[in-house]
Amino acid sequence: MPPASSGSPAAHAEPIHLRLYIAGDSPRSQHAILSLRRLDGTSLAGRYRLEVVDVLQEPAKAEEDHVIATPTLLRISPSPRRRILGDLTELDQLVRALGGGEPRSSAD
Amino acid sequence: MATQKNEADREPQTAPDTATGGPGPLPAAVSVTGTVAAGDPGTEIEQRLQAAEEGRRTAELRFHNTVERVADGILVVDGEGTIRFINPAGERILGRPADRLIGTDLGVPLVTGETTQVDLHTPAGARVAELRIAETSWEDADALLISVRDITERRDAEERERQLLREQMARLQAEESAARARVLAEASRLLVASLDQDTILSDLAKLAAETIGDHCLIDVSTDLGPGRYRKIVASRRPEGDAEIVVCVETAGPPLPSPLARRVYESRRAERVVDPGPEWIEDACFEPEDRELWRSFHPAVVVVAPLLTSSGALGILAVTSSRTARGLADPDEALVADLAHRTSLALENTRLLRLAEEASRAKSDFLAIVSHELRTPLTGITGYAGLLMEELERPLTNRERSYVDGILRSADRLLRIIDQILLFARSRSGRDEVRYRPIRLSGLIEEVAAVVRPLAKEAGLRLDVHAPPPEIRVNTDAEIVRHILLHLLTNAIKFTDTGTITLEADLREGVAVLRVSDTGRGIPPDKIDRIFEPFSQAEEPHTRAIGGTGLGLSVVKNLVRSLGGDIHVASDPERGSTFTVRLPQPDPAES
Prior knowledge:
The complex is a heterodimer.
Chain A: E1 16-22, H1 27-37, E2 48-54, H2 59-64, E3 69-70, E4 72-77, E5 82-86, H3 91-98
Chain B: H1 2-10, H2 44-69, E1 73-78, E2 83-86, H3 88-94, E3 108-110, E4 115-122, E5 125-138, E6 141-150, H4 152-193, H5 197-211, E7 215-221, E8 229-236, E9 242-250, H6 258-266, E10 270-273, H7 277-283, H8 287-295, E11 300-308, E12 311-320, H9 332-388, H10 397-428, E13 436-439, H11 440-457, E14 461-465, E15 472-475, H12 477-493, E16 499-507, E17 510-516, H13 539-545, H14 551-561, E18 565-571, E19 575-583
Parallel strand pairs in B: 14-16
Antiparallel strand pairs in B: 1-2, 1-6, 4-5, 5-6, 7-8, 7-12, 8-9, 10-11, 11-12, 13-15, 16-17, 17-19, 18-19
Helix pairs in contact in B: 4-5, 4-9, 5-9, 9-10, 10-14, 11-12, 12-14
């Protein structure tokens, strides 16, 4: 159950679809998964859906998304798509990068 | 480098231009000379501009060479994470040519600290890369400069090193556990090698001082009396083996020391590094004990409780001192295990001693009771005998039959008591065996004479096969007589019709005595138990036939006291045969 959303801005209503690409059980991959679990403790809690794709298991999908390095985190929706590479440790940075659905200042 | 970048920004470079696979899409390679060429040639300004241009070209070239030749891959990604620039090393590391990379999304790198590591998926296989990020600008917009270093080999080497380390650790652990197992196996051997408490404890203390630490102290309450303690200390000698340095019986403290109480209560071993004076104070009440502990110069002490089902018996302590050969660190778990095994062994010796004492007490009890029963019986038979002699007056027939009944009952009771007494004696093992050379035939005739009337009374025939008179055996005639009388009366008791046979002979230095009957035999399922005390082949017969059920167990004990054995062969149709074999002792021994 998401925390009471009555006070949240309506802009946050659209769920965030995330796709994390990892490679098997490499330490980098495990670290990324652990990092993303911590999103539940942030303002994004209950607002996102996380899909984990193993490039070793689904190379075709990785090819389609042009993933050449992992861990890579994709924000599929809301658009615009965003792509993050690296260890995903810095939670604040991550939440900012994934944002809500608000457009980036550069696109204004 | 940042200034170079800014210059490059002036002439934006498009990806298709550099897609030829040339030496590298270096943005700064495009010159800006066109804006200067409009001036008058030969002027000073022009010359200075040319000089500046030369300098710039040189710098560009240097930059170009640097970026092209560095082993690290260098990429520029824009704010969207799209690749805008990559050097040849980058192409190599990512395993793809620049034209397939520039314009595609790599992603915005999120890096905490200086670097981060990622898995690379190249057509040649998986690699591990380290990314280092710096802020820069690209085409007047913020961008990120990423240097990529392939660290697969380094990671592999590290992994190999870790693996090697793990293997070394595993080997060390295996060696350690093998050493532990050896100590425990040796302890187990020592603990069952003896049932004597002092021997067990001394051997164990020496083992612990030799293999686990430098000194081992065992302080344990004994069965020697309430509040009696045995203190044993073993110390390792410079030669490596351990010796017992203290083995005394003490009155022990009136109460366990605080240390002992602690380990009794926690039921666990206590390990202390560099125990101070307070700890030693806690460990013992007696000044000489403190002196002893101090003399160990303990650097590490492990103290384990000796606990049994009946309570705490004492403590086992192992100490190590810092010596030239370094510190032997006593293994807490090993000491606890050793203490546990010691407790079990101590309990076993105690239980064995209790059982032996109980058994001896029972035998003593039986002997005393039997004796006490015999005394009044002597009175009964004596006075009844006087009546039978009709000294006062003649008896009527009825009176005589009554007195006869008293006498026969008393006689039966006396025989039962004798059996009990004999059994008790044979059990308490106090009967001395007195070997003497005797004529076997004489002994046989003597026994036959006693039994013949009983057989006749029971309507049975008694066949006696005595050996030639010159056959002599070296034995205790009293005991052999008991054996044969038991076997013969038994045979008569359990045979309704037929013959009782008594045979004796000396064959190859073994006296063989045999009693056979034509009785009801012994059921096969009972034959194993008939030499047990209080066992008769058929329980209901006990009442019909009478007897204590002690007979055959007494016989067995008697035969054993002469160093012989007894066997029974039985056939329910044809009766039973008891064979006693008595080896002749060496004349020298007798």
